[in-house]
Every structure is written in structure tokens, then in C-alpha cells.
Amino acid sequence: MSLVLFGHLLGSALWIGGALAAMVIAMASKDEDARVRVGVYRLLARVHTMVIGVGAVLVLTTGVLLTMWLSEAGAADLLREPRLWVMLLTGGAGGLLVLFLGLPTAVRMGGLAVVDDDGNVSPAFEMHRKRQALISSIAGVLAIVALLAWKIL
């Protein structure tokens, strides 16, 4: 079971750390030339699929396994803890948000990251960029709440 717990912590580090790094890189590229920015966003699409998405899958999978283990181990008192349910619900919602909305948006945004002859990006790219920022922000807050739920509540 310690390997599953390690996987859960590793997934959390990949998901939250990757998301924070992506946010910093996206914000830092704001003042760059459009050609540089689209290259950054193509790379960020890969970060979302290879780091953030993998972390979210790892967290969700190991979270289910840990919950099943608690249930089978007869830890009924622990399963009644509100902080465990806050962790399960916020982490699960954030992970599903990343997988089903964040990743497809990041991939589409990476595909749309091209500059026309005038040095402008398409309106569709800007729409996906704003959507990605909103989705990532919500999923990040949910992940942080899940991470801190056990210690705070």
C-alpha cells in the first residue's frame, strides 16, 4: 500500500507542480513577440499532456485504490471524516476537470498556436487560451483544497 501512497503523492506533485510551472511560463510569455508566444503555448500543450495529465490520472487512480483499501481495512471511522470527503470530492472534481476539459482544450490550443503573416494569432486560439486559463485556475484551486483538506479541517 505504501507504493500506492507514493504514487498518489507523486501524482499530486506532477499535477500541482506542472500546473504552477505552466502558469508561470504562460504569464512570463505575455510580453513576448507573438511568434515566441505560440511556441510557448505549443510546448505548454505538451506539458499538459505529459506532466499535468499524467499527474491527474495517477492521483485519481491511486485515490480510488486508497479509498477501496480503507473500506476493506474496516476503517469505518476514517471514512466518516469530513476532511476525507472534502479531499475526495475536490480532488476528484479537479482531476476530472483536468482530464475532460483541460487536456482537450490544451491540445486544441497547441494546434491553433500559429501566427499569420501579420503576426497575429487566430481568435479561436485566444478563446481556447482564455478557456484554458479558467479551467486550470479552477482545477488548481480544487487540487490545493484537496491537498490541504486533511491538515486544515
Description:
This protein is mainly alpha-helical. It has one domain. The chain is built from five helices and no strands. α2 packs antiparallel against α4. It is elongated, with a radius of gyration of 18 Å.
Descriptive keywords:
153 residues; mainly alpha; 0% strand
What's the arrangement of secondary structure elements?
Layout: H1 2-28, H2 34-72, H3 76-79, H4 82-112, H5 123-152
Compressed to H and E, one letter per element, the order equals HHHHH
Number of helices: 5
Strand content: under 5%
Biggest beta sheet attributes:
none
Terminus-to-terminus distance:
25 Å
- Low-confidence parts: none
Tell me the domain tally: 1
Concise summary:
With 153 residues, this protein is mainly alpha-helical. The radius of gyration is 18 Å and the shape is elongated. α1 packs across α5 and α4 packs antiparallel against α5.
